[in-house]
Amino acid sequence: MRNNRRNNGSFWLISTILCLMALLISVGCDSDNPEEAAPPGGECSEEGALRCTGMMLQRCVYGYWVSWAACDRGGETCQAVGGVPQCVCIEDQTKCVGNVLKKCVGTVWTVAEDCVASGVSCLDVQGEPMCCSAITDAGTCADDEGGDTDTDTE
Hints:
about 150 residues; alpha+beta; disordered C terminus
């Protein structure tokens, strides 16, 4: 008798789960309203086309605008260059790429200095990327402290 109750309970549990799964599949997968199924970027007609929407670069994929790149994440902005929307750098902005200090000239990142060639590293010093040997306790570049760096006293 005890086994029958267990089997009976298992039967109802499995039956309930299967019914719920069937209901979810039939309701959730098909929509007669195309606006409900459309991505939030809206419709587009030229496959692969690009556009800027604020700081977001969007691309036309299967007839809908989709977010392609967040330009502000890389410290860049979204703008058309030569008629082509793209993420571009902001004039005179600098950044470290590994141990290379890069500077934005026009809309292109160029090498400003190879820090390793100078025997130092590319570091972010108080929000400003620069070639520097170390950051002091005061948060400045040790190379900018001036004077003799020799710690021996006579």
